[in-house]
Batch of 2 targets.
Target 1
Amino acid sequence: MILFISIVSIVMLLSFIVILRVLLMERTLLKKLAYRDGVTGVLNRNAMDRFWGKCSDKRALAVLFLDLDHFKDINDTLGHQAGDLLLREVGQCLQEVMQHNKQVFRLGGDEFVIIMTNVTLENAESMAARVLDRLSNPFVIQGQKVIISGSIGISFNRASKVKRSELFKEADMAMYQAKRLGKGRYSVFNEDKHSYYKATELITVLKKSANS
């Protein structure tokens, strides 16, 4: 009888350990899914918010906005499944060029953002050039060779305090400037260079206010 009770106790203990391990694995998986993009495997917006919050020193910080050129044409020609496979390859490519003080996130669609800390503007430009160089290599998607390029906008912060929205907006403006210049290149945000676009935006806001 005592032996039977001991065996039952051991079985119950082992069962408890197995259940506990399964629960821990599920928790780890859910945590991973919460911060990983399902298509590309790179970090997502949730992870970006978390990373930004933990980044205590935002001086010497660079934000790089990457938008793939003509991605819609690839989706329309090869289909959305091929487009997702291409995004996954691009995500893997970006992760391969990242280092300890750099993180890549997918914003959605064909847009990615790279955040670099404790860097110079020259470091950010060098990273942009490396990314564009890697993207210039053909990808093989479903047995077909796919050639793409990307446009990158760079914003750089030298102050101790900065609003993320401002840095991201500047990087976005610089990215569109790169597209206007011919795509497949990067552009650095410059206050003078982009003053026209800011002025245009202000005029638009004033017109909307006047009409409301």
Target 2
Amino acid sequence: MDINESKYLYIRPPKEALWAMTVFLALASVFMAVKINGEWRGYGRTIPPNTIMVSGEGKVLVKPDIAVVNIGVIKEDADLGKVQQNTAEIMGQLAKFLKENKVDEKDIKTTSYSISPRYDYKEGEQKLRGYEVFQNLEVKIRDLGKVGAVLSGAAARGANQVGSLTFSVDDPKKAKEEARAIAIKDAREKAGRLSADLGVSLKKIVNYGESGGGGPQPIYAQADFGFGKGGGFPVPAPSGENEIIITVNLTYEIK
């Protein structure tokens, strides 16, 4: 044998040792697989704390502080240019009158303008009679004491379409904030009573929800505006109040 040749001593382990090692490796593999799977499932997740949820409601009554009315003109003539000019002149007079009565320009809005052909029908034949021009303004009146005078003055200056008079609240934001504060106070008081009944302590609020709080519904006036009767505009004062309701949900962590 060459003196440079390596010599190895190999001892075969007993079968029992091989079997034990195989079982150990198998169990270790299963353990690691379960551990990794559990860590993967729990990645980015936290165990939710114990919580309770309570609701509260807040109501606020508001009185109307503005009136909104539609003031319009309908004119018809065989000459389209003439009827357009006539309508424009009346609308100009109306706009001037409204501004003289302290109605801001931003509170005067054109909501509709249309031109429609008009026909006569005779013996089954259609013949163009002329054109109808309609223009409508939506006017917001902030001084409720001037509503009647504004409507009468508009009619005197050629408006022949006045309607949809409503009384509403211009900016319900303050009332909504007040209703929200009442609702939160109501929910907090309920949470205090509930926690005492359950024998738990309230910690921090972990979730907040809110619903409701839409603007108050307008009050519609019923009035005889007296068109074609030579009468004035008896306008009823706004009656009643509107409710703004907000509901909140508070979720507390408890211990």
